Amino acid sequence: MNTYTLAGVRHCYEDRCVVAVEEMEVKEGEILAIVGPSGAGKSTLLRLLNFLEHPTNGRIIHEGLPVGAEVPLEVRRRVTTVFQHPVLLRRSVSSNLRFGLKLRGERPSETEIQTWLDALGLADLSDAPARTLSAGEAQRVALARALILGPSALLLDEPTANLDPYNVGLIEDMIRRINTEQTTTIVLVTHNIFQARRLADRTGLMIGGELIEVAATEKFFSSPDDHRTAAFVRGDLVY
Amino acid sequence: MDTLAEALVNALKLLRDMDPALLETVGLTLQVTGAALVIALIIGIPTGAAIGLSPGVRGAGFLIPLIYTGMGLPPVAVGLFVYLLLSNQGPLGGLDWLFTPTGMVLAQTIIAFPLVVGLTMAAVRGVDAQLPVQLRALGATRRQTALTTLVEARMGVTAAVVAAFGSIISEVGAVMLVGGNIEGRTRVLTTAIVLETRKGNFALALALGLILLALAFVANFAFYRLQVRRGGGS
After folding, report:
1. Which residues have C-beta within 8 Å of that of residue B16, sequence separation ≥ 6?
2. Alpha-carbon distance B44 to B58, whole Å?
3. CB-nearest partner of B152 from A73, A76, A89
4. Residue A82 above 70 pLDDT?
5. Is residue A150 within 8 angstroms of chain B, CB to CB?
6. Spatial distance between the Cα atoms of B200 and A73, rounded to a whole number of angstroms
């Protein structure tokens, strides 16, 4: 079963459609990378997949069930997003980790919190005020806060943009680990084609709101079908 | 200077002797202001949060300037309005609230409400605009989103509470008109100060003023401790 199936999905503001995806599938347990130039509609696509916005037209089927305008809470809570600029709450790091579970009426054990802190190299920052962290630490807290929820689909919007290689490495390792160990479906939006190549099972190119091509990552980079994909992979300007 | 010194001595004496009339006045002041503040907070915080969280709300261009205007309402004008509302010929005359603490609470609630709404709205709008989206992405319901946003805006919301409290504990125009400064029934510290000044008892009036200031300081100290404690994890 696909985690997502999109058919004729359009998301428009007045006369401008920022997303116009005729067909798209996200297979259960895969890492799908979406690359493309700025303003291609990648982040809006993620917001649609997280049900933060409702498409103007078209259908989104999530885990076999069509999703309407009012998304049931339990469906919405199976998906979460880590944003490029995560907003951490004005409380400690460990309290930020607890937050999503508290919303669900759950109380994580100290061991569980510590496990995630350790996994993301945050063990020493448990009691630190979250707003005082560096960008890399903040992004790792945001990732831990999302992963502790055990989502069936994890949406990552430029999760390592502007981070140093150490933080990029930690986050990429965790993405791989979660995908392998927990078979979490991951949709990764990135400008970084090298990251897409390192992580993704399949990669897609978005330009002007349209999904130009989706292919197995190796094929996408070595022998793409569309000339725009070939140009984008070469590093040419594509828009 | 003599009057000031005498006022200080008087204030201490009044407090030491636990003068029953003074205690009654202080008690009523706290009752009226406390009740008005609680009502204004109960209605005003959710209203301010709702407006703050809906930047594109219809009619905002008119509503927000209206709230800002309300934040500067002259208490005496509010007092006059409530007086007319509660007088025998007024639409709420049947309630018999004129010259009662309930009427005074109504007037002070009207003064505090726009302050609470306006400052809460500003506080909520001051938090990161992406916070509600982030909270929804973490699975928050609309209610949880609003509550968490309010908690994140707690410094500003506490400032709203402080401003509203300050505006009503110190106002005299509305409580004087609506309450009538009746001894043992509707006399509060501010109206007592006016009365004693008119009688020429400046030292006593100043003493009452010092007690009022002390009360305001204690309350604001408590609000500040709350603000610091809640904001401690930031």
Report:
1. none
2. 19
3. A89
4. yes
5. no
6. 67
- DSSP lists the bridge partners of residue A186 as A31, A154
Mean of pLDDT over chain A: 94
Residue ranges of domains in chain B, CATH in brackets: 2-233 (1.10.3720.10)
Q: What percent of chain B has pLDDT over 70?
A: 97
Tell me whether B134 touches chain A (CB under 8 Å): yes
Q: Kindly list the strands in the beta sheet with A202-207, ordered across the sheet, starting from the edge strand earlier in the chain.
A: A79-82, A153-157, A185-189, A31-35, A202-207, A210-216
Tell me how many degrees the CA angle A212-A214-A215 measures, rounded to the nearest 5. 140
Gap between the Cα atoms of A190 and A168, Å rounded: 12
- Residue A106: list chain B partners with CB under 8 A: none
Question: With bands split at pLDDT 50, 70 and 90, how would you rate the model's confidence at B1?
Answer: low
Name the CATH topology of A2-86+152-234.
Rossmann fold (3.40.50)
**Identity of the residue in B134, B231, B233 whose CB atom sits nearest the CB atom of A83:** B134
What residue spans define the domains of chain A? 2-86+152-234
Nearest residue of A to residue B141, measured between CA atoms: A73
